[in-house]
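Good morning N.,

You mentioned wanting to compare the apo and holo forms, so I went ahead and generated the holo version with zinc ion. This is what I fed in:
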Amino acid sequence: MKIRFCGAADGVTGSCHLIETDRYKFLLDCGLFQGGRKSEERNRVPFPFNPSEIDFVLLSHAHADHCGRLPLLVKQGFRSQIYCTDATADLADIILRDSAYINQREVEYRNKKNHRLGRKLEEPVYTINDAIEAVKYLSPVFYGQKKEIRDGITVRFNEAGHMLGSSILEIWIDETGKDGKIETTKIVFSGDLGTTGRPILRDPEQIREADAVIMETTYGDRVHPPAASGIRELSEAVQKTIKRGGTVVIPAFAVGRTQDVLYYFNRLYSNDPDFAKTMKDIRVYVDSPMAEAATEVFKKNAQDYDEEARDMLMEGKNPISFENLVFVKDVFESQALNHDSRPKVIISASGMCEAGRIKHHLKHNLWDSRNSVIFVGYQAAGTLGRLIVDGERDIRIFGEPIHIAAEIFNLRGFSGHADREGLFRWITSFNPVPGKIFLVHGEQESKKAFAEYLEKKAGIKPIAVMEESSADLSEGRGLRRVSPDKRSEKLDELISLREKLVKIHHGLEHILYTTTLAADENMTSDRISEIDEIISNLEKDTLNLGSAVTDFGEPEAYQAGEEPK
Ligand SMILES: [Zn+2]
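and this is what came out, ligand included:
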């Protein structure tokens, strides 16, 4: 079996991994490359496989860098199921149309210039019709359901706590071994891992076993401050700006982060009296058509909420809404905001300031020192958002030079991605250590730093994937075959029980031995035989239990011949 890393191999975007077994070819994600023109050009490079030969796709979640090349895949001949959760299917529908729309608009804009200069006109990467076509292949499955999707391929989607519908994938793959016997290999794909205690979402699921793990490392070299400090900073930054008569601009991904921010505003209005007082008559605008549609999907998929958000719903409160919230209806209303001098909050997309209405709001607000821009999400290298958080003061938007006078806040407590400690906890919870661990979806320094950290702290040597490349899963040291998983989970428990008993046995033996020595000559021969009998009975019991555990299936479950650790 082979894995080919076709995206998110040398950076964080374009997530796409091809698995080739003896019978099937399938993809884990099929995402867009993002982050500036140069990265986006990579979306035009042909896939390193024939899309019509792909048997199915497993989609971890609906962010464009994970699902954004699906329309391209379908356009080039893929005609089969794209498995994902319900909420992912709903959100991917919105995101794919939006990504097509943005691309079409950008190409139209560039073509005006191309036309004037007598240059060759560009084609969009894909159109809205391509997106609509791709959405037809989305095939929702339930969280936690173990589903055999092909003969010999079983999958389970587990909560990843990263965005609504996001999943960690468990995949069991049967292949025929050299001796003609069926061997099962289990691959775990982390998708994007969230943090514990995220608003609305449940915590990421811990997976116990895998032969191979493919995991993200977006923040493999960083530790987030606690979320509570982020909420406090948000409250302070917003109030500070409003009190000096300014406008707060919050660039936020339309899907996920915008709803997080709405949830935090809701909580601050209810629980922070200072905030509620300052913000009493202040309007909070969400200016992104996609964000409004996504908020509707959130309302529809309350089955995926965590307990806190569900409790609020049960009390009749909407956790992502509040009195002062206004969804901007159209472009005219959006433009009107730029001529409204009253203090206000504008939440708009895209989150990295690369496209969408946020660019207009930045253009109209960055020059004024009363205003502020509050970043609440990851800013990839090469994006306008990254330039601003890195402290650049003179930038260009739509070709116009702008000097930044507004106050810039970069709040780190809101990340949708696990930090180094979260990633470490997740991967070290596997027991035993997976045979192979591939680090993807991180900038090069982050992957390197996390690989070093893992080796230093836990003695685990992962493979940091640095470029588009392949890896063989059939061979190589340390690959452990497991079949089937429930049984070996029990086996692990029994083995550790046996180890415990052996330890107790050794301890007792030691005590009895030293007692005998201490008894010296005063010990009668009857007493000695009594002690001897206790020892041999203990020995017998432990050995019986030991062989019972071994008979339970150790030889079959550990076909690769490696002893469990
Ligand atoms: Zn994501």
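Residues 476-485, 549-565 have pLDDT under 50 and may be disordered.

Happy to go through it together on a call whenever suits you.

Best,
F.
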